[in-house]
Amino acid sequence: MKTSSENFLLEEEILWEPAGEGMRRQIMGYDGQIMLVKVKFNEGAIGYEHAHYHSQSTYVVSGVFEFVVDGVKQIVKEGDGIYIAPNVLHGAKCLEAGTLIDVFSPMREDFLKK
């Protein structure tokens, strides 16, 4: 498996991958320590609650989302951020179509397996 991305990743050259019903993602850069992922959500799409050993930080580019992190619900919108510690149960529901930027450390190897 390749352990790092190219230096420049141009949106129009990266295929969108399915990321669940009503969601798609583009991997925008990574190495073994970090990964940046853009995720587009249709209104009503649900990122079901899950946990993983990666640290995660998420930035809301657009849209409105209801996040649950460790049992706490919060509505977030454009300009807001979310931090998710390793192994913490979390999920999101898209209330208004939008885009999230997720950063993972270490990289999500499972996103690269095809």
Q: In summary, what is this structure?
A:
With 114 residues, this protein is mainly beta.
Write up what this structure looks like:
It is a single chain. The chain has 114 residues and is mainly beta. It has strands at 17-18, 23-31, 34-41, 46-50, 55-69, 72-77, 81-84, 90-105. Strands 1, 2, 3, 4, 5, 6, 7 and 8 form an 8-stranded antiparallel β-sheet that branches. It is globular. The chain starts with 16 loop residues before the first strand and ends in a 9-residue tail after the last strand. The relative contact order is 0.27. The model has no long low-confidence stretch (mean pLDDT 96).
List the uncertain runs: none
Structural class call reads mainly beta
Query: Over the alpha carbons, how many angstroms does the gyration radius reach?
Result: 14 Å
The overall pLDDT average reads: 96
Distance between the termini: 10 Å
User: Strand-residue fraction?
Assistant: over 45%
Helix content: under 10%
Largest sheet: 8 strands, antiparallel
Count the helices. How many?
0
Shape label: globular
User: How many strand segments?
Assistant: 8
User: H/E order of the elements?
Assistant: EEEEEEEE
